[in-house]
Amino acid sequence: MAFQLVWLSKGKPTTLTFKGKEFRSGISKNQVDYLEVTKNGIIGDDVQNHEFHGGSERVICVYPYEHYSFWENMYQTPLTQAAFGENLTLTGMKETDIHIGDIIEIGDIILQVSQGRFPCSTINKYTNINTLLNKIVEHGYTGYFFRVLQEGKIESNSKINIIEKHHQKISVANVHHTYFHNKKDMKQIEEILSLEELSLEWKERFEKLYLQQTKK
Q1: SS3 sequence, 66-83?
Q2: Per-residue pLDDT of the chain (216 residues; tens, 9 = 90+)
Q3: Cα-atom radius of gyration of the chain, to the nearest Å?
Q4: Rounded to an integer, what distance in angstroms lies between the CA atom of residue 80 and that of residue 164?
Q5: Of the four, 78, 94, 116, 119, which is 20 to 30 A from 176 by CA?
């Protein structure tokens, strides 16, 4: 499938309600015509919990549009635009297609894949689907993050080009599968840890996993 931007979205933390209880989150995004992107974030976009979201290695959150129909068919319910809290919803770049370290040009900015998304329970509250988080982990339909190598603007009609595929060709899906479903594959863990382009957060996760396995 060709690369194509479907939605550009941004937003700041708001108060949401789930089962009569209020919570604060930046997951709710509004569709926009363009995004102004710096190395530290998207102008006009923010997160609630900076420990687990945002930062220079998680500037742009991406979610493949192809997954929307999968979830809608599974749960027999329509999903809203940017239902997963992503900034870019696009086609042709699923987790199986994209590798850690790949360099992508969108509009006049240059981006690099830094990590897969580590899903949290907020997605259940926002979509009002209690089992969605578990199913995301099961299927690996997490989305992923870009760091910014060159700042600029993304517009709704911007073209997407893959400038460079990382030579190790370790996909976002592969990293997710190893961490959640194949924890004993030491060879794969070591290969993932050798990725210089992998975000610090995920390196720390895999270092802990490596130590756990070597102690057994």
Answers
A1: HHHHHHHHHHCCCCCCCC
A2: 689 999 999 998 777 676 777 767 778 899 999 999 999 999 998 654 545 445 789 999 999 999 999 999 999 999 999 999 999 999 999 999 999 999 999 999 999 999 999 888 889 988 999 999 999 999 999 999 999 999 999 999 999 999 999 999 999 999 999 999 999 999 999 999 999 999 999 999 999 999 988 876
A3: 17
A4: 32
A5: 78
pTM beyond 0.85: the answer is: yes
Task: Report residue 195 as tokens.
Answer: 């990725």
**SS3 (DSSP) at 141:** coil
All structural domains of the chain: 4-165 (2.40.33.20)
- Euclidean distance between the first and final Cα of the chain, in Å? 44
3-state secondary structure the chain: CCCEEEEEEECCCEEEEECCEEEEECCCCEEECEEEEECCEECCCCCCCCCCCCCCCCCEEEEECHHHHHHHHHHCCCCCCCCCCCCEEEECCCCCCCECCCEEEECCEEEEEEEECCCCCHHHHHHCCCCHHHHHHHHCCCCEEEEEEECEEEECCCCEEEEECCCCCCEHHHHHHHHHHCCCCHHHHHHHHCCCCCCHHHHHHHHHHHHHHHCC
Cα–Cα dist 174/138, whole Å: 13
Contact 135, 72 (CB under 8 A): no
